Amino acid sequence: EVQLQASGGGLVQAGGSLRLSCGGSGFTFADYAIGWFRQAPGKEREGVACSVGSALSAYYLESVKGRFTISSDNAKNTMYLQMDSLKPEDTAVYYCAAHWPKLYGSSWYCRENVMNYWGKGTLVTVSS
User: What is the per-residue pLDDT across 94-108, written as a single tens digit (0 to 9) for each?
Assistant: First the structure.
């Protein structure tokens, strides 16, 4: 069965960096659209970064462009979210997700309620 688990969250000072990891089992990332989502306290879940396999075509939420990078290691069946220059407003529970089939562009998979496989979240807290 398809399973995902995010890890790597924690407490960091504004301006700092964190790298989130998401290990997968029961499937191969190369065959799925992958993505990272977050939900801040009192706010709706939003797509942060999604990819259909091309770094140049990855979608990023406007507020994280230039600061976050989504990537994957197919040999390890793991996806990552590198977060740099973190801001207090980045504080949220972050979730990794995937979708099969992979038929559309990256941005489509970051839309609300599109992904069909979800991992348990990891909390990222950015202090000012």
Answer: 999 999 998 999 999
Residue in 88, 92, 75 with CA at minimum distance from that of residue 127: 88
58: number of Cβ within 10 Å: 20
Residue 39: both structure tokens together: 């939900």
In terms of Cβ atoms closer than 10 Å to its own Cβ (0-12, 13-18, 19+), residue 78 is: middle
Structure tokens at 19: 């790298």
Q: Burial letters for 96-126: b for 16+ Cβ neighbours within 10 Å, e otherwise?
A: bbbbeebeeebebbbeeeebebebebbebeb
pLDDT digits (tens, 9 = 90+) for 2-19: 899 999 999 999 999 999
Cα(first)–Cα(last) distance of the chain, in Å? 41
One-letter amino acid for residue 112 of the chain:
E
Q: Do residues 36 and 46 make contact, with C-beta atoms less than 8 angstroms apart?
A: no
Could you tell me the maximum CA-CA distance found in the chain, to the nearest angstrom? 41
